[in-house]
Amino acid sequence: MRVSYLLSLLPALVAAQLPLPNPPFLPPDIASGAQTSSGGFPNPKWSSLLGTLLYFYDEQRSGTLPSTNRVPWRNDSLILEGRDVGIDLSGGFYDAGDFSKDTFPLVRTIPFTIPSNAQRKMQSFALMSICWGATDFGQGYDLANQTAYLDDTLRWGLDWLIKAHPNDTTLVVFIASADEQNTYWGGDRSIPSPRPVYTITNANPGTDAAAGAAAAFAACSNLYAGRGFSNSSYSAPASLRNDSYANTLLTHGQQLYSLAVNATGGRKTYQTSVPQAGAAYASSGYGDELAVAALFLSWATGSATLYQEAEAYYTRYKLADSNRVFNWDSKTPGLAVLFSQINQGSPSFGGNFSTWRDTAEDFFDGIVNNKGPGYLLQDSLLFYDGDSDDASLNPALNAAMLLRRFAPMASSVDKRVAYTDFAKSQVDYVLGKNSMNGMFPLYRFPPRG
Q1: Among residues 125, 163, 255, 365, which one has the fewest Cβ atoms lying within 10 Å of its Cβ?
Q2: SS3 content of the chain, % helix, strand, coil (to 5)
Q3: CA distance linking residue 261 with residue 202, whole number of Å
Q4: What does the alpha-carbon distance between residue 360 and residue 96 come to, in Å, rounded to a whole number?
């Protein structure tokens, strides 16, 4: 085992995580069917739902499982991942229903409650999204007694992402055999290995993947440092503060942002350097990743320069023209919200809160008034042609997440109410308030109407 690998683990090992509850939380027995809520605060049904959604990530775990493993059918798997190339890449999460590990888009994110809900990209997009949500709405995790599981889930992904970033100018972006990725349907104990490990480097860059990982590290550093967005309408960050771990995450974020911006090979989409990864999850561009990374880093470091770089990316890469769906490949709809949060909290950065608030409202008004770019299906589910076709609920739930986050900053009471009500309608649809009286799975295609 290489000394450099052991050293890379020290910060994570020193920054101990929260102890998990004993006995552990387990999802309710599905055989019991739907049950009426008894109400109260916190509502036990919502607390159980949040816990069940976090449990989903336990089901996706790779590597040597801890003694606290709650999933009886999940086994230790691929515990020697990466050793053939001199990097310990065991751990992390599998992507969706297969066994690949994708740094840019790894595991499918759970719907509706974990705040951001687009589908793939655990090691970058989903980690960023969960940390952003737990920074804004941390009280929900605390009241539901799920903060320890939030910490456990995040560290399982973040510790793997730290290992996937073994030095300043290298990031592992894909682990899988192209021939076996979608053809192996066996159990987790007999996954064919060793598997090819694909990286981006200074000479063979992937601007989007590096910047996306930088955004994840920075957003999660903000959470672990307790750096909320100073908006009294939101709750405080979840109670898992750990300054040592926050500093470790920030260092990795800064290094990866530097790689994204300054790679000697220039700025390129990651599939240019690693076509094997792009064959499954091709990126449409990197301007949005650069902007969101700069924004989270600006908040983490108090840097007006980074904030101004984010505004420059928004203009340079004409991101307003792609303001459509918030998901693993497109961060643009979330940028105006994040710009607004940062402007409200740090006016000294030089931004204009009213400008970004108006940009966000132009987008959200189109959604709630059914004037595009999406449109409403039967029972008022938001649908985007070309995006919702394969992931029917995710674009709608991502829009709901952004609407709910932005609503307290809206320019009028009417807009605040409209945004909140629309967000609630999308969640209600998924939970069974629809003409079929059924709770939809993540990929069921709803009827057009």
Answers
A1: 365
A2: 50, 5, 45
A3: 10
A4: 31
Q: Which residues pair with 102 in a beta bridge?
A: 174
Amino acid at 212: G
Distance CA 209, CA 403 (A): 26
Per-residue pLDDT reduced to its tens digit, 312-368: 999 999 999 988 999 989 999 999 999 999 999 888 899 999 999 999 999 999 999
Joined together, the tokens standing for residue 390 give: 């394969």
Give pLDDT tens digits for 147-202. Answer: 999 999 999 999 999 999 999 999 999 998 866 666 788 899 999 999 999 999 99
Query: What SS3 state is found at 400?
Result: helix
Q: Which CATH class is domain 3-24+56-351?
A: mainly alpha
Q: State the pLDDT at residue 432.
A: 87
Whether cis (ω within 30° of 0) applies to the bond prior to 194 is yes
**Chain segment 207-245, per-residue pLDDT in tens:** 999 999 999 999 999 999 999 997 655 679 999 999 999
Kindly state the helix (H) or strand (E) to which residue 152 belongs, with its residue range: helix 147-163
Q: Whole-angstrom Cα distance, residue 212 to residue 103?
A: 9
Extract the tokens encoding 16.
């101990």
Domain ranges of the chain: 3-24+56-351, 364-449
Q: How far apart are CA 287 and CA 335, in angstroms?
A: 11
